[in-house]
Amino acid sequence: MRKFLVSxxxxxxxxxxxxxxxxxxxxxxxxxxxxxxxLSEPAVAVAQKFEAPVIVDVLLDxxxxxxxxxxxxxTIQLLESFGSxxxxxxxxxxxPMEDSENPQETVAQLQSLGLQPANVTVEExxxxxxxxxxxxxxxxxxxxxxxxxxxxxxxxxxxxxRINNSVQQLEYAFADAFxxxxxxxxxxxxxxxxxxxxxxxxxxxxxxxxxDYYNIGAITLxxxxxxxxxVLNQLKNxxxxxxxxxxxxxxxxxxxxxxxxxxxxxxxxxxIDQVNMEMDSIYAGGGEAIATPxxxxxxxxFFKYGVRINPxxxxxxxxxxxxxxxxxxxxxxxxxxxxxxxxxxxxxxxHPINTNIExxxxxxxxxxxxxxxxxxxxxxxxxxxxxxxxxxxxxxxxDIINQQPDEAxxxxxxxxxxxxxxxxxxxxxxxxxKPLKLQNTSEEGPENKMxxxxxxxxxKNQLRNGRPLELGYDxxxxxxxxxxxxxVNSTNYLLDNTGLINIRNKKVTIPLLxxxxxxxxxxxxxxxxxxxxxxLTLLFGLFFGYYRKRKFTA
Length: 554
Prior knowledge:
By secondary structure, the protein is an alpha+beta fold. It has three domains: 36-181, Glutaredoxin (3-Layer(aba) Sandwich), CATH 3.40.30; 188-480, Rossmann fold (3-Layer(aba) Sandwich), CATH 3.40.50; 513-553. It contains 13 helices and 27 strands. Strand 24 (463-464) and strand 25 form a beta hairpin. Helix 2 packs across helix 5. The relative contact order is 0.11.
């Protein structure tokens, strides 16, 4: 018996010593297969920049549904990983509805801050209820606050897919927020004007979003005719040029200025409509309008970089909806209808730009040919397998909604709609007569990147009462699309020198409990978890009593 007590004492002493040592030496071991608790180097680098407290308020405290409890756990573990790299990063769990005397007013206040709730249907013991959850975190540093969405929803995603998508983007979401708070010198973006591009109010939400990362200015190409050198010099002060839906042709002089800007290292995003067609034209034309080619004098420029936008329309059975009104006055009804010229474009998840994003809405888009040359090209978005092209000029009529589509004719799918081009850029005017004289021109440039998107409306936000709505939100159908995330990711990729956006490629799989099995086997596992320990305790007591009795009566 004495030996037994000595052994117990040794174990206790060993445990105390180990705990004392652990209090002085802190380390973490990530034993997960996908290493989801091992932070990437860019995330660690941005977290270590803070020299003052960073407080993260996680709005997932209180009584929340099971799937959000898992998201809460993963969020806490990730923040503890960040905290292990920088002790200034701390977190609080907050229940936004706690002690709320007027829940509706509290919800309205949270929504006014841009914190949209998730409406969750909960089924328990045969009863179904709806609950509002605010899956957000607020990162506070000095006098700045950045909102971090914790829930990553995708159209048609199951509960398990939704949690996997959410957890997969957590590290990037927080690293991105830390980046916004720690930026010391912002890069610059030039919004190109002068060729009938979208007015600022129609790209306002995108510009507002990227303002956290970048400085924004406008460059008008009209001045190229009178002072091209000055325009080029101004452009060189910007790291990226944004060309959003030009409707007027570029002159050769303007093209040469843009060519020299890109060859000398300037990044660019081109959003181009090769077909002249708008829904407003159809409504104004009594339900129909003629689609015609739009000549922007850019074919040779894009051809040099290995893409060609074809002047035809993509007709896709994976479509988004438009809304038509029927009736008059107070009896008017708004009915959503399929519109084959508004493709719903799902990502192939083949690049950090498009990984884990919601479907992107295109409007009257054209397909691109990807040509062979020395540049590396990545198709970021493409039409569905059930798509085809419609030649122009043609009459586009609302009557198409009354016609049954011939599915057999939709056999030309996978049409490129957004292409990333990377490589050492060569001037389109190399070994050619230059349209004007510029100083310090280059025919061969450094490594560079550009993105060509065959739809100018991909960046266009809708308006309500003259005010811009969130990019990707359709006020008529109340649907949300991934346009903003796609464009912000594109911008960050082009201008990111740290590799932070590559975190989006991280793959995480979270095993979840089977809800159906839980309901079917609930009683069984309650008995196992409650009854088995009791039975084992009784069995051990009987065995120990028998052992003692036999030992001391022998």
